[in-house]
Model the fold of this input.
Amino acid sequence: MGALTVVVRRARIDEVFALRHAVLRPGRPEAASVYAQVKNAVHIGAWDDKMLVACATVFPDPWPDEPTAWRLRGMAVDPARQGTGIGRQVLEGAVAIAVAAGAPLMWANARSTALGFYESQGWRVAGPEFITADTGLPHKPIVLLLSTPPGT
Ligand SMILES: CC(C)(COP(=O)(O)OP(=O)(O)OC[C@H]1O[C@@H](n2cnc3c(N)ncnc32)[C@H](O)[C@@H]1OP(=O)(O)O)[C@@H](O)C(=O)NCCC(=O)NCCS
Done:
């Protein structure tokens, strides 16, 4: 039951796309969930047995003064499983991938309704609120500074 039973691992886009779309762009055309111009994306999924219950996607995308930054998108947890720690586990997996790639910083445009989630995991607001054209919802840019192990 709950977060303890899920397995978090890298995923293919065809494994995560339906959940991403259902949670983040319900009722919209599928094209609304396709991240155009994104290269070298890595997808992460959390499975409870054979059922995908959460997903996220990370990829290299520059941030001001951080050309090797990575970006987080598509962070989504099955509504029936939200608030049970699964989002935290997927976010940790996403961060680990950016760290392994040597990223000094991660960023995202977070829904204002989800800011508390990111802040509880060490992310910080990095700019004013704005409305994204594709959702019509208020967002804020957020960043997570990543420490690089000594000697690397
Ligand atoms: C936001 C979301 C990804 C969080 O995942 P989750 O599995 O529900 O969150 P967790 O159970 O892992 O919570 C981790 C911590 O964040 C907090 N938290 C979770 N959602 C929160 C929210 N919306 N607002 C404030 N705090 C939140 C939890 O209380 C918990 O705090 P704790 O560590 O002090 O106990 C998930 O609820 C979701 O998919 N929501 C709908 C889609 C969405 O908004 N995605 C993000 C788009 S930017």
The longest strand covers residues 51-60. Residues 2-103 form a domain with the Aminopeptidase fold (CATH 3.40.630.30).
